[in-house]
Design a protein that fits this description.
The protein contains 9 helices and 11 strands. The protein is of the alpha/beta class. It has one domain: 3-Layer(aba) Sandwich (Rossmann fold). The strands form 2 sheets. Strands 1, 2, 5, 6, 7, 8, 9, 10 and 11 form a 9-stranded mixed β-sheet that branches. The chain has a two-stranded antiparallel sheet with strand order 3-4. A hairpin with a 2-residue loop joins strand 5 and strand 6. Helix 1 crosses helix 4. It is globular and about 70 Å long. The chain starts with a helix and ends with a helix.
């Protein structure tokens, strides 16, 4: 590449970086929700965390950074919505008066459309979500990442620069825990604080006899947190109603009292204590 083109590219990247900084500067707290592997309920945790924060009177954005598997629209029950575009700005889809969301799922022709993109195209989409989407003044931006430690989490961490922390979602079995350790190490390399580990699908209580069955073992997430020296945020039990709520586009934090809701309320308060406590110490 000749010097002229190199200088032009540098200017463009600087301008794009400034646009991300300007947009993210209006957001008090930025949180990444990660998992080392798929199928652990990461998006369910991210969506319900965003919804629960909004229910507490906070202004929240939920950004779906899973380009190939954008499930946020379905989990929130807003698959038929489309973002408004005005004066070159994309406005995220309102979910409640306090919560708004953005996903590539809002921009594809239908839910069965496959997105076949290489890394640079995914990074460009994520950059646009961070800089060209008009998030406005917000208390929290929750970024739901795809499983693993590839392009998307790397792009988000590098573009936002000042991420308040990462939440690692896992299930109790050994394979999932192995991958969650990789996610913790990934965060350490990028100097992103680990807010903590959430152990999902942790025990199933039979609705008929009341007996607890540890289908995917129990307590592994807490043990991993201790071994790695990171906080343990809590465990969420298995509950068929939780699955139904996700399929119906109804966040389970809206349910009447249940063990799952009780567990999640505890996790949300632990997240707020970590993030907002850091702010008070500055």
């Amino acid at each position: 590449m000749d010097a002229g083109k190199e200088e032009e590219m540098k200017k463009r990247m600087d301008k794009e970086g400034e646009a991300v900084d300007a947009s993210m500067g209006k957001v008090k707290h930025k949180i990444m929700v990660m998992s080392g592997k798929g199928g652990v309920g990461k998006t369910t945790v991210a969506a319900n965390l965003a919804f629960a924060l909004g229910m507490r009177g906070l202004d929240v954005g939920l950004m779906d950074a899973d380009i190939h598997g954008p499930d946020v629209p379905m989990i929130l029950g807003i698959e038929d919505k489309r973002p408004e575009i005005k004066e070159g700005k994309i406005y995220p889809v309102p979910v409640t008066p306090r919560l708004k969301a953005m996903s590539i799922g809002f921009l594809i022709p239908d839910r069965d459309s496959a997105i076949i993109w290489r890394g640079p195209m995914k990074m460009n989409a994520i950059r646009q979500f961070l800089s060209e989407v008009e998030w406005g003044e917000m208390d929290y931006l929750i970024v739901d990442l795809p499983p693993g430690t590839g392009d998307e989490p790397l792009s988000v961490a590098q573009l936002i620069k000042k991420v308040d922390g990462a939440i690692i979602v896992t299930t109790p079995q050994d394979l999932a825990l192995l991958d969650s350790r990789k996610a913790v190490n990934f965060s350490g390399i990028l100097k992103v604080p680990v807010i903590g580990i959430v152990e999902n699908m942790s025990g199933f209580v039979c609705p008929y006899c009341g007996k607890k069955i540890n289908i995917f073992k129990y307590g592994g997430g807490e043990r991993s947190a201790k071994e790695l020296g990171v906080p343990f945020l809590g465990r969420v039990p298995l509950d068929p109603k939780m699955v139904e709520a996700a399929d119906n586009g109804t966040p389970f934090v809206l349910q009447k009292e249940s063990k799952v809701k009780e567990a999640f309320e505890h996790i949300v308060e632990n997240v707020r204590t970590f993030v907002e406590g850091k702010e008070e110490k500055k």
